[in-house]
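Quick review question:
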């Protein structure tokens, strides 16, 4: 039987296939045996191994279950996300995978509405501006918008996470796009605050030195109650998995919530802003 030579350095899809073949052969399995364990045909396994067919998320997760790499740092799902989200900030695709499984999500954002709360029109204005400035390509903008939509849908799963959101006042006062775009975005925030699994607050400018957090931050509480935090620099995203390191961030977040406006007062501020009285 002819054995096609693999070239893992030719791209992430080829690297995925080469790793799949290597993992299979280390266990002494044929393509038929792996196919049976994964629920795919041997022809499909061969096509992925040789880079002729791109893996899907379902395929990657099936490979993880069959090969015992599910939930590890070297999982095939993580490898798939590198392929799927190749133009995104380094570290972000890995975070998104955890975000979709979190039991609780705590967000703090400055300057713009957080992506999980953005309307399509608001997100489009930001993406178009980034393309115009040359910061990203049109293709990258399309990918980013697609990922944002997928993240929002993932939060509507049957066991939706509890979400705590604190927005700096600059987020609601900074005009993005035409007035109608901004008004619809503010309306979305009000709708979000009415959901049974959300807590929404505004951190006023007047908090001044009492503000314990000055940069955007996300804290995830996973189903097993372990903690993760995520923050971004201009170059990459950083996911912190050590719960002991995340605890001080969580404490600061609680202090931020204590100083921020209540949910009812936050919604009232947005409604007044929509009416033009602020």
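Suggested answer, residue by residue:
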């Amino acid at each position: 039987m002819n054995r096609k030579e693999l070239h893992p350095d030719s791209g992430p899809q080829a690297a995925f296939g080469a790793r799949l073949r290597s993992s299979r052969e280390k266990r002494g399995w044929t393509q038929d045996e792996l196919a049976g364990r994964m629920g795919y045909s041997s022809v499909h396994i061969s096509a992925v191994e040789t880079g002729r067919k791109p893996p899907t998320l379902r395929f990657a997760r099936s490979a993880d279950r069959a090969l015992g790499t599910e939930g590890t740092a070297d999982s095939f799902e993580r490898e798939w996300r590198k392929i799927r989200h190749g133009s995104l900030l380094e570290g972000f695709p890995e975070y998104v995978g955890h975000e979709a499984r979190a039991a609780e999500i705590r967000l703090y954002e400055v300057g713009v509405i957080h992506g999980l709360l953005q309307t399509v029109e608001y997100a489009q204005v930001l993406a178009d501006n980034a393309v115009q400035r040359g910061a990203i390509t049109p293709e990258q903008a399309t990918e980013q918008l697609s990922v944002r939509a997928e993240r929002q849908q993932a939060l509507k799963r049957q066991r939706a996470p509890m979400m705590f959101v604190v927005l700096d006042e600059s987020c609601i006062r900074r005009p993005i796009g035409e007035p109608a775009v901004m008004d619809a975005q503010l309306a979305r925030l009000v709708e979000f605050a009415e959901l049974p699994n959300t807590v929404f607050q505004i951190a006023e400018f007047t908090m001044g030195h009492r503000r314990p957090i000055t940069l955007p931050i996300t804290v995830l509480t996973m189903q097993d109650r372990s903690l993760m935090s995520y923050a971004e620099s201009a170059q990459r995203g950083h996911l912190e998995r050590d719960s002991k390191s995340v605890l001080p961030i969580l404490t600061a977040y609680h202090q931020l919530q204590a100083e921020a406006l209540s949910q009812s007062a936050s919604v009232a501020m947005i409604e007044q802003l929509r009416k033009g009285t602020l």
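Why it works: The beta strands are 104-109, 162-168, 198-203, 217-221, 227-232, 237-240. The first strand starts at residue 104 and ends at 109.
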